[in-house]
Amino acid sequence: MAMSPPLRHLIESAAPLFAGEAEVVRTYWDSPARTIETDLRWLELQVFKEFKGSGVGDYDNRGVIMGPLTEVLEVLPRMDIEVSRHRIRDLLEGLYEEFTHLVAFADVYDAIRPEGTPRLDPHRCQGWDEDTALTQLRYRTLAEHGEIGARASKFSEGGYCTLFREGMRIADRGGNDALIADACAKVYDDEFEHMLSGIIGLDAEGMTDAEWAEMETLVGELLKARVVMRNGQFSNPLSPERVAEIHAGKIDPVAFDYDRAETLMAA
Ligand SMILES: [Fe+2]
Ligand SMILES: [Fe+2]
Fold it and tell me: Which domains are delineated in the chain?
C-alpha cells in the first residue's frame, strides 16, 4: 500500500527530529560521562516507561500495562456482544509485548548491576521530569486538538524506534553493551509495528490540507519534547545548544524505511 504525498510529507517533516533522538542515544554510548550508574539509571527509567508510561489510548490513563489489563477485564464479559473477540485478542497481544519489553530491560539491569547492589524493583521505578513534561504535552494535545491531536500523539509514539535501533548497533562491543543490544533487538520489531499503527489508516481519514498541516505542527512539538525526554533519560549527553540546533532542524534526517513500512502495512 503506497503512502499518499501528504503522509510522506508528514514523515519527512518528522525525520530530522527522529534523527535527533537517535543522536542522543548514539552520543551517549561513547560519552565520557557514561558510567555503570548512568547505564543503570536509563535502564530503570526505561522499565518505568514500559511499565507505567502513558501510551496513547491507554485505558483510563492507567499506563501501558495496567491500561489494557483493566480494559480486558472490563470488556471480556461483553465479548462479541459489544466488543469483538479480535479487539480483545489485540489488547492481549499488545499487553504481552509491552510486558516482554519491561522484562527485557529489567533483566539487563539485574545482569549488569554491581555485586551487592539490590535487584531492580519495577514498583519503585519513577518517571523523570522531561518524561512528565512529554506526557503532559500529550494530554494537552489530546484535550485541545481532539481527533487531530490524538492522531499526532499516536504518530509520535516511539519516535521511530530510535532508542532500540541505536541500541542494536552496539551488539559487537560485547559485555554489557551486547546485553543492551540484545534487549533492544527483542523490542525493535514490536515497536516498529506499534509505530506503524500510528501511520496506518491516516490516509483513509480524508484529512484536509489544513488538518495535515495542523497535525505536522503538533507532531513537531511532540517530537521536540521527545528529544529532550531522551536526553534527560541518558543523563544529557547533548548540550542544550545542540538540542536547540536539532529543534531548529540542523541535522540530517533519518532515512525512513518506506519499503518495510509499506510491506508491513500491506500484510
Ligand atoms: Fe514497549
Ligand atoms: Fe509499544
Answer: 5-266 (1.20.910.10)
